[in-house]
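User: Please fill in residues for this 362-position structure.
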C-alpha cells in the first residue's frame, strides 16, 4: 500500500512538472528581431502542420524503437526456454509462422512474368525470386501480428502520447479560385458561397504531377454529387523537380486574370506531356483568351508568381510536402485517394453540421 502511495505521489509530481513545463514552453520566446519577440505559441499556431509532422515523426521513432526492444526481449525469452540463441529462436518462429503457398507463387509468377525486373531471368530464377519476395512479405505480416498481440495484451505499451492531428485553419481567401460544380464555368455560388459552404475543400497541386491528375475524376464526382454544398479551391504547390510546374502555374494564373482559370486548369491537366510556352499560347486561344494580354502576362509573370509563392507558403505552413494534398474543412488528406476517402469525411462533416443546427435551434 505504501509503495502504491509512493508511485501515485511521483506520478502526480511528474505530471505537474511536465504540464507546467509545457505551459512554460508555450510562453517561451522563439526569437527576437529588433527587440520584438515572437512567442513559441505563435509559431505553433501559424505553422501547426509542420509542428504536427515533427511530433508525429518523434512518436513514430519512439514506437519503432519500442517495437525493436520488445522483439529483442521476446526472442531472448524464447531462446532461454529452448536453450538456443535469440537469432535461432527468431528463425524458428518465422519458419513456423511464414508459409508460402505454391498456388500463390504460381499466380505471382504469371502476373509479373513480363515485368522488366524479371525479363532476363530463367523461369527457375524468377520463381526463386518470387518465393523470396513472398516470404519477406509474409515475415512482415507475422512480425506485425506479434506486435499487435503484444499491444492488445498490454505487454507492449507506448507511453509517449501520440499527437492528434489538428483541424487546420485553411480558410478560403479573395485570391483563391473557387468552383461550385463539376463544369469548369461553375464559379458562381449556388446555395452557398466560399467559407459559408458546409464543405470547403482546398486542393494543393501542380500541373506536372501525374498523381494530381488522377484525382480530377474524383473531384468532378464530388462536385456533382454534392452540388450546392461544396466550395472547391485549388492552390499552387509546384515541386522543384518538375521543370514546367511553375511556368504552368503562371499560365493558369494569367488565365485567371481573364476569369478563365478553371478552363486552363483542365487544359493543362489534360495535356501534361505538352507544357511548353507554345502549348500555353495554343491552349489560351482554344479557351478564348485575349492573347495580347495573356502573352504579356506570360512575359512579365511577377504578379502571377507572387500569388503562386503565397500559395506555396500556405501549403508549407500546413504541413504539405508533396502533391496532391487536400483539406476538407481543415481536415488533411494526402495523396491520390479514391472518392470513398473524400466522401467518408464529407459525410462526417455534414452530419456534424446537422447536429450543430439542431443544437442551435433549441
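Assistant: Residues filled in for all 362 positions:
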Amino acid at each position: 500500500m505504501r509503495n502504491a502511495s509512493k508511485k501515485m505521489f511521483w506520478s502526480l509530481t511528474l505530471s505537474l512538472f511536465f504540464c507546467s513545463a509545457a505551459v512554460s514552453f508555450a510562453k517561451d520566446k522563439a526569437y527576437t528581431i529588433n527587440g520584438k519577440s515572437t512567442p513559441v505559441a505563435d509559431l505553433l499556431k501559424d505553422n501547426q502542420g509542420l509542428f504536427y509532422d515533427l511530433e508525429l515523426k518523434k512518436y513514430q521513432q519512439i514506437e519503432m524503437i519500442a517495437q525493436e526492444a520488445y522483439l529483442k526481449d521476446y526472442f531472448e525469452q524464447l531462446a532461454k526456454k529452448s536453450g538456443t540463441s535469440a537469432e535461432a529462436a527468431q528463425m524458428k518462429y518465422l519458419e513456423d509462422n511464414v508459409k508460402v503457398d505454391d498456388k500463390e507463387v504460381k499466380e505471382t509468377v504469371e502476373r509479373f512474368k513480363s515485368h522488366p525486373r524479371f525479363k532476363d531471368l530463367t523461369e527457375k530464377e524468377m520463381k526463386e525470386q518470387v518465393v523470396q519476395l513472398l516470404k519477406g512479405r509474409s515475415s512482415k505480416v507475422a512480425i506485425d501480428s506479434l506486435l499487435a498481440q503484444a499491444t492488445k495484451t498490454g505487454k507492449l505499451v507506448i507511453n509517449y502520447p501520440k499527437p492528434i492531428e489538428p483541424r487546420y485553419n485553411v480558410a478560403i481567401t479573395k485570391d483563391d479560385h473557387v468552383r461550385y460544380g463539376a463544369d469548369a464555368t461553375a464559379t458562381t455560388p449556388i446555395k452557398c458561397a466560399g467559407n459559408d459552404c458546409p464543405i470547403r475543400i482546398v486542393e494543393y497541386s501542380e500541373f506536372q504531377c501525374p498523381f494530381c491528375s488522377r484525382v480530377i475524376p474524383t473531384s468532378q464526382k464530388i462536385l456533382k454529387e454534392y452540388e450546392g454544398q461544396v466550395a472547391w479551391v485549388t492552390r499552387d504547390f509546384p515541386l522543384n523537380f518538375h521543370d514546367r510546374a511553375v511556368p504552368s502555374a503562371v499560365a493558369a494564373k494569367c488565365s485567371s486574370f481573364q476569369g478563365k482559370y478553371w478552363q486552363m486548369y483542365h487544359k493543362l491537366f489534360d495535356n501534361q506531356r505538352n507544357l511548353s510556352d507554345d502549348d500555353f499560347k495554343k491552349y489560351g486561344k482554344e479557351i478564348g483568351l485575349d492573347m495580347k494580354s495573356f502573352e504579356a502576362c506570360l512575359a512579365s509573370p511577377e504578379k502571377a508568381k507572387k500569388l503562386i509563392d503565397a500559395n506555396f507558403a500556405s501549403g508549407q505552413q500546413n504541413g504539405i510536402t508533396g502533391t496532391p494534398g487536400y483539406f476538407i474543412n481543415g481536415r488533411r488528406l494526402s495523396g491520390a485517394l479514391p472518392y470513398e476517402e473524400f466522401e467518408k469525411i464529407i459525410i462526417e462533416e455534414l452530419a456534424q453540421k446537422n447536429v450543430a443546427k439542431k443544437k442551435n435551434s433549441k
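For context: The longest strand covers residues 199-205.
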